[in-house]
Structure formats: structure tokens, C-alpha cells
Amino acid sequence: MLGYPARLLFGDDRAKTDFKESKDTGIPRLYTERHISAADHRYWVQFTTLFESTEDVCGTLSIAELRRTAEKAPENLVTLVEVLAMHLESLVDDTHFAPMPEHNPGGFSALFASTAPPPRADNRDRTREALNCCRVLTRAIPIVYESDTGPRDDSDIDNLEKRTLWTPQTRVRPSRSNSEQQPAEKKENVSAQDDSKSASDQFIIADGDESVSDVKSDLVQDPLTRQDTMASTESSFQVTTGHALLNTIVELLFHAGFTMPWTDEQLSSTIGPEISRVHFTIWEAGIGCSVDLKDTTPTHIEHRIEVLRLLVTLLSKPIYTAPQDQSTTGQPAIDYIACSLERPVVLSFLCSLLNTVANYRQGDRWTFLSASGDPVRDSLTSLCLQTLCAVLTYEPRDLNAETPNLFLYYLTKLYRQTDFAFLATGTAKMFQTAIANTRGPFELGSTTGSMFVKSSEEHVSELLVVIWILLRHNPHFRQYMVGNRQLSLDMFSWLLYVALTNKDSPPTLVQAQLAIFILQDLTSDRTFCIQLTTSQSAADMTVPSRLLRSHGAVAMDMVIEAVFMLLTRSAGLMAPLYPALLLILDNTAPFWRNLSLISAARLEQMLEQFASPRFLLANEGNPRMLGILLDTFSRMLKEQYSTNANVVYILVRAAPIIERLESFSLNGALESLYRLRERASTDGRISLESPREMPAASPVQDSVNVADKETKEEAVKEPTESAKETQEANTLQDGKDGQEGDKEAVKEDVNEDVKEDSKEDSEEDSGHVKDTKGIKDAKDAKDAKTDGTDANKDVLTDPLSKLTTEDEPPSASIEEPKTEPAAASSSSAEPPAPVAKDKAADAPVGVDAMPPTPPPKLSQEQLDAVARSVGKNGFVPTAAWVDAWRSSLDLSVLKAALTELVPRVNAYCADPAVANSANADEKLLAFLREQTLTGVLPASGELRTSPC
């Protein structure tokens, strides 16, 4: 063995200082001297003995120095990784590494047994050496991954990663006689059989397959061991450093005395020191195992963390790969772990990872942990989640390969209800703890970022990935979760919680996006949708009220409210996910039942905004979102017409919008937008364009490119308009929408916008329908008022909201027509979602209104200027594009239903007995429930869904 200097063995502080600064014997030598020999043991051994902790390694071996080494002397970085990997490999089979404790015979013979630990033969701390190898490799491998490829003038290494980890190297190993090898093989099989039958009920998966430890030799040449200690009989073999290191890591994770306790069978074995130290035994109780490993200590957990951290680093190659190169760049480390390990190893490792995660928040699992948790345990769970994400999401490049992703394969084979209950319970406790640690409603803090303070150990992103993989790839687990009412509502609550708390926080936005994808996937399941519409399901939701208020009896009301909030309160960050949010509504529409008044009003707001000319012409993909929303209403009408009177009522009110879409033209829409801007300039104020795009990614308003012939007044109005909209966006984010002055201005602008857009509609078709705007469900409105100030503030969260606040009578902005029933109180007279009237609606029913004077036609130059200004990111709408998406809109169901219902509602509201009734709202809703569309709508076919 190499003689270790005492200064290195005991970690003298001066030695650390010299190692950090000396150009002759320290770290600077790595990048100042070329081609340091691997045989320079006294230099390389410092990397294994001087450090005492991970922080010590990070403080001494800087990333800048490693990058300088990769640039100026890459061969030294290759040698460093190879030397440490081989030394770590040699320690696994070293009998002095994590030695077996002395057996205490007990009884009378114990009097003659020494209890003192056996002295170390060479004063080496092999455990410390192994930990330092893991720490330094964890520090160096990211530099290898991030290095650029390409020819170099001063080196023959054109691909540092391939040369360091994936190039086969010829190694020399001492060969042992068959008589020396046979006991080790025999002892492992016997041990596995004995363990499976032990009284402790510890489940070890062993079916006679070859283990990882049999694939590689018992000993390899240790570069830190003197050559004269090697056996005279040698043989050579080729193996890559990366594969050898991965094998070593897997063995260290199941190494008795290092990361796992010694079992009773090992301690009582008659083989003695030659007993196998690597046993693929599940770490914790849970799946595949009924009890924890006895005598597991925090030291075992700390060692396990160091090894897992190195494994995660090796699996992190995709992080250093550009997105466009992900599909073409190989991932040898993940491929080897996921597809090349043996079945017993995969099963034990997979169960160990899952059990560790599921036991995270179960305090009774680990008696040595305090009630408040332990950072060691938190770090272990974090690394287990990261490892699961890496191996479960990996897809082999060769889909026809004989060996698939074994971790994913065996995950799909879970089927026991007890295993699913164990995973669900562990997941629930993790989310419940995260929710409990959020900010309270009265705590101060930034309101623009995430609404709760998460500890870094929670790792919501990784947990969501594991849950989604289980739901998508294990049908038994999916059925278990969606088939249980409470579990379905709990999962729905967790996902909404994650989405709402991270919707406007860029650092954690990916968590909100992932939660929305899972929700879309779950809503494609019929059973899950039914659970959301069961009676009183809203009461079983666990979303904090400060994030989402319950205003109905079913959880589906919360779905609509959450979608509305994500659309209007995400500051544009969720814009790429608008289609996914609308598909959630589309998937659930056939199961809507007894939606509340506020939910119906939210749907009306979404329809008005998505159907606005400005939104439709702003982006090439916007008409698709309108199509999804229209399909949502169509599916509801075909499947649940009789149980959704509130939604049917808002559709009747929205009949002019449907008619406008049917005759939508590019020139007409551009003229409408031009008139709005012209009127705003003439009046000396800015009105909201009807309605504004759902919400803009930034408050900056696109400028209008006007022609030279346009008036100076039209040209100078844009800065004012931009400043106005910027102020509105800032007001929205600062939570100041509840002020009375803002509410009046918003509603006045919206009324004028809708009035302008309504000029093109038929007055006879819309007059009677708009006369019903004061009719509502009084009970639901009363309940909505009890929500408090927050409820009022939320109603006007969107600047285009047409819901009046509960503390403001509708007469403040809308005049009641003569045919409206007299309002006994502000509560009964307040409309559910008042629609701004046009001039035709101001006239009494039956009186012909004077048609408005048509405005002058715009020139083609003016139309082109408006078209260039309305599009986003350089998009310019064309007539051919409008004709293409307009023909793809399926309005057949809505048109048929409204053609049948609008005349009925108009006739019913014209009846004086209804119009003058104190409970006209209840009568109209009851009237709509009694109507039938049998024979009017096409027959319902097989329900289709849109999974993610």
C-alpha cells in the first residue's frame, strides 16, 4: 500500500492551505502543468484525504479552477476522474472498508471477548476516502459535461466527455483461483435465500439472476495502491470509466456498513470477513417490504446522500445539452442505469426510492428524527425524487431495443391496493405539509411573486412528475386514484393549489404548467369528471380559501373559477397554456351539473373576450381557443341542458355574439377597431377595445402604424392609449381594481365597446333577450355577497369584467328597461352578468328605433394600417386566413339551440305576469329548465376527451 503521510491522514489545516494554493503540489498544478501522471500517487491521494465535508470540497476546489483545467490541460481532468473512479471501485471490495463489527458472543464467553474496536492496520480512513471520491467526482463531472467539443491545437482530446467517461480503457486486475471465487458466489445465493425467510420479514428480491457484483471483477488495479502489492498472475479487460463508476455507485448504495446496516445473517455468518458486503435489500418499509432495516443510523443516511448525489450528477447530462440537441444526443449514463441493470437490482432500487419518498413526512418512520424534520432526511428525499425523475422519464433512443426502460416497466407492474394506498398517503402528507407552510392571509410580503414560502426540500416539480408518470403508465394506480371520491378531490385540490400559487411567479412557473397538464390529463377520465360533479363535492376541497373561494355546491364550480383566474391573473405568463386550460373545460363540459350563477357569469366573460375581434385577429392560434370554448358549450347543451339553467341563460344572452361570429369578416372587424380608436381620440379619453385580449403578456400596448393621410389627432392618441392600458395592467397586479372610481371607468368603457360592436346586430333579434338582463338567481347572489371584500375585489380582477360588485347597485351604470320587473332591493335587482345596452335596447319593447347612421367606409390603406397594428409579433391577419378559421368553427349546436330558445325567452319575458313579478328571475330559470331541445340538437355520440 501507498504510505500516506501523517499530515494528509489527519487533515492538517496547513496541508489544506498548501493544497489550495501551491502550484507544485496543489490544485493549481492541474492547470499549470500538462500531463500529470496517474502514477503520481502522492499528488492524487490528496483529493481523497484532505477534505472533511462537501462544503470543504466546494470551498477548496472551485468551479473556475476546474474549468481552467478543462481548457488548458484537459488530460489532467481526465486523469483525475479516472484515478478517483478506480480508487472508489477498489474500496468496495476492500475488507478494511466499512469492516464488519466484532461479534459479541454474549453470556459467559463475553467475559473473554474484547469489546474494543479492531485497530486499523495502516491508519487509513477508507470511509473518508470513499466519501471524498464521491464529493470530488460530483464537483468535476459537470465540468466534463459542459465542455465544448471540437478539435484542439494543443491536445488530442476533441470530446472531453467521451474521452473521460465513455472510452474503453484497458485495465489490469489480479486473477484469483476458482476456489477463491466460488465461496463468494455461493455465499451470496445462500444469504439471499436466508434473508427472504428471516423472521424480520425483510423482503429481498432475488431470483437467481446474475447480480451486478458478478459482472465485474472483485478487484481492479487501484492507482493509489503500490504495484508491488499486486498478485503476480494478472489478466486484462476493457471497460469505460463511466460504466465502471455507475456499477460502483449502485453497489455502494447497498453496501453493508457504509449505506446500510449489517443484517443478522451477515453477522452470524461463519464465512467471516469474506461474506458479501453488497446486498440489494430495500431500504425502507413500504412497497415490497413490510419493515424497515433494523439499526439504520443517520450516518448510513448521510453516506447514502453522498453516493446518490454523485449518481444524480452522472444522470444530469440533459441539463447541459441544448434543447434542439436533446433528441440526437446520447445519454449513456441514464441508458445504462435504466436499461442495463439486472432485475433484482432494479426492483430493489426502485422500491427503495419510492418508499423513501412516500415515507418522507411520516414521522413515525424514523425514530431518530425530530418532530420538525431533519435536513439529512430532506436531502435524501430530494435526491430520491430527482433520481426517480431521471430514470422514469428516460426513453431509449432505440425504441425497438430488446431491453426497455426497466424502471418504468416495473413501475407499471404495481397492482396491489396496499401499495397504492401507501403512495397516496405519503403524497397527501407531503402536499398537506406544503399547504400548511404557506403564508397566512394577514402576513406581509410581496404579492407579485409566489404566494407561499416553499422550502427547497419540498421539490414539488419532481413529485408532480412522478405522480404524472404513475397516472399515465399504471392504469391500476390511475383507477385507484380517480375511483375514490376523496382521493380524486384531494388530488384535484393539490393540483389547483400548485397552479394558483405559482401562476405569476417566473421561478416556479413550471410547477403551475405541470399541474395544468396533469389536470387536463385527469379530466379526460370520465370517472374523475363525475367525482367533480357529485353533490357537495366542493365542501371536500382542500384548496386554501385565500387562493380560491367556493361559490357553489360542486367542485366543478371551482374548476371554472380556477380556469378564469389562471386566464386573467397570470400576467400573461400562462398564455402558452390557454388551450390546455380551455381543454379542461371542454373535457368536463358533458358532466356539468347545477353550476352556480358566478360560474355561468365567468363563462360568459370568457366567451365575450375570446370572441372579440381584437383577440381573434391578434394571433394566428387565437381562433382555435375560441373553437374549443364554443365546443365546450355545445357539449354541455347536448349532454346536460336540463341541469344547467344558469349556463343556458348566459348563452341566450350571448346570442348576438354567436350571430356576429357567423358573419365575421376581416374588413368589418378592422372597421370596428378603427371606430373605437377614433371615438377615443375624439372624446379625449381612451376606451377599452371590446374586449381586450385575454390578458396580454406585458402591459405594453402595440402601436398603430397610421398612414400619412390620417389626421394628426389619430396619430397622437396612441401614447395616451398605451399609458392608459399600462396603468390598468399595473392596477390589476397591485390589487387596486376594487376602487369605485376604477370600476365606474371600466364599466363605462366596456358598455360603449359592446354598444359599438352591437350596431351590426339585428335589433329585433337582440332586443327582448337583453331585456332579461335583470333576471337572476337571488339566492346565489346573496351567497356571493357573503364572501366578503375579497369576493368583490375578484369580480373586477379582469378590467373587462362585466359583473357588478355586490355592494353596488346595477343602476349605477346600467339603466333598467321598462319591461324589467320592479326591483324590490338591490339584491334582487342585480343582474348575474349585466350586458351593456345599445341604443336599440334603450327603447321600449315594441317601439321601432331609428337605425344609426352608417359610418363612412374606410380606405384600403386605413384597413391595412389597422391590420398591421392589431397583430402580435409581426402577425398580420388576412381575409383568406379569417375565412379558413371561420369555416372551421362549429356553430351548428349553438345556433340550433339559440334559434329555438331566444324566441321562447323573448315571448316569456314580454308577458306582464312575468315582467312585473317580484321573483321574475326564478321564474325565468324555471322556464328554461322546463324547455326541451329534443329533436333540435343532434344526438349525443360517444364522449370524446382531450388528454394531454
Automatic annotation (TrEMBL):
GO CC annotation? Golgi medial cisterna; Golgi trans cisterna; membrane
Basic and acidic residues composition bias: residue spans: 149-164, 183-198, 707-727, 734-758, 765-796
Biased segments, Polar residues type: 166-182
Biased-composition ranges, Low complexity, are 820-830
- A Pfam family in this protein? Hid1
Q: Where is this region: Disordered?
A: 147-199, 685-863
Identify the domain of life: Eukaryota
List the protein's name: Uncharacterized protein
